[in-house]
Known about the structure:
The longest helix is centred in the C-terminal third of the chain and has 18 residues, at 347-364. The strands form two sheets. The chain has a seven-stranded mixed β-sheet with strand order 3-2-1-4-5-6-7, with helices on both faces. It has a six-stranded parallel β-sheet with strand order 10-9-8-11-12-13, sandwiched between helices. The chain has 17 helices and 13 strands. The protein has 381 residues and is of the alpha/beta class.
Amino acid sequence: MRAKKNILIVSPAKIGLTETFIRAHIDQLYGNVFYLYGWDLDFMTQSGISLSELYKPKSSFLTKLKSLLPHYIYFRLAQKRKKNYTKEAHIKRYIQEHQIDVVLAEYGTAGSFIAPICKSLSLPLLVHFHGFDASRSDILNTFKKGYQFMFSHATKIIVVSTAMKQALVGQGCPEKKLVLNTYGPHPDYLNIKPNLESNYIISVGRHTYKKGPYLTILAFQKVLDKHPSLKFKMIGDGELFDVSKNLVKSLDLENNIILLGGLERKEIIKHLETAFLFVQHSLVALNGDSEGTPVGIIEAMAAGLPVVSTRHAGIPDVVIENKTGFLVDEGDIDAMAEEILKIVNNRELAETFGKKGNVEIAAHYNLENHLEIINQLIYAI
Length: 381
């Protein structure tokens, strides 16, 4: 058995409920895993203690000596001491104290922050892109120089869709460094038995511009014209949650659309078991923000649910049109309503699509394979 490496995972913010893939990396990668989160090297530990607090000077030794030392000597000592307590010094100290062997940066932004530190310590760096970090125009502009440095230093860059791979090549990443590794669902999803005779449609994903929750609601409203007894459960929170809530209220759909907010995996599974169809209207936001490959869709397919979604980012990589679901063009709510109706009116088709989707995910997108690819990259270094 190979000796375990000390792996440091860094992300720009504390992982959320929907970032199940990063949680799987922290919990299940082979090795001794450490986790820090924060923007621009202002890192926090998992316990919520910042590195600046962790490495805070424990005495006011220099202050006591200030009156005893000549000014120039005190100034030089103070400057040296100050240098030892920069953000860069904190992360270097943490890496050295924990004898880190390799860094895995979750999101390109975190990779950009940590790349100079890794280079200065001759430390291998893997960077895992997920979506906004490879598409949002403001991010790409802000991190343009940082990304170029990161592309040069990183050992490998992990992407989750062919569209993302092409986008990063366009940004200057050497193609030989790119590794396509789409997420895999937690094994629990593969054992779900959906209720294909129910009246419940479901979505799981944050209420953000790129997931188009308002467009999904408008498409569902058209479906209700012919099937007013249908119900739609929307799981997820986000910056557009109140927009979705107000839209549902203004359309007088509060009896048909249930906004459940963010939920843990066990609760999500319970709701997936009540549904017969998964719907999500992903699209490119005005700022360029795009999906990677939506985990919610992968999990829904694993659960045996047919999918109606859009031809966006990595979705066509996973959803096989007319075999595991239907895809429409971004923004076309009329087409989405029509495809939803096809499933509503033909539950045998729902069952056929769902079973094929389950088989597809189990064969090609399981979590074990996803994690093993990352493990292989870590231990090949």
